[in-house]
Amino acid sequence: MKKILLVITMSLLMLTILSADELKALTDIVIDPNPMYDFTKITVSFDSPVEVQISIETEAGKVIKTLYSGMVKDNLQMVWDRIGDNGTYTPSGEYFLIVRFNQRYTSVKRTLILK
Fold it and tell me: Which of these, 58, 56, 50, lies nearest to 26 by C-alpha position?
């Protein structure tokens, strides 16, 4: 019984260490300018290769624009021109840059669009 408990404890410890290492993967998110008018440059930095999905969403979670989906080795730079996935110009308001990586972790950064 003690061996089983030790194996379970060691397994949980290893999973915790792996999870902490995966969390370190995202090192920086820069949105410039923020607030934006006509466009903004978005830079997302990682310290190791990751599978990532990046989108602009409303507070309610509606996806306005999917900016990127795929593997990233270190830095990813994008420009968003306020055009949504449906081809329309995104109105003024508060939006969120959502970065999902390794199919587990999510990071959120707020951005404002001014007239």
Answer: 50
Helix ranges, 1-93 (H): 2-23
Distance (Å, rounded) from C-alpha 45 to C-alpha 113?
23
Count CB atoms within 10 A of the CB of residue 21.
11
Domain containing 106 equals 25-113
Q: What is the pTM of this model?
A: 0.77
Q: Which amino acid is at 35?
A: P
- CA atoms of 56 and 64, how far apart (whole Å): 5
Question: Which residues in the chain show pLDDT less than 50?
Answer: 2-19, 22
Does residue 12 belong to any structural domain of this protein? Answer: no
Distance of alpha carbon 75 from alpha carbon 91, whole angstroms = 28
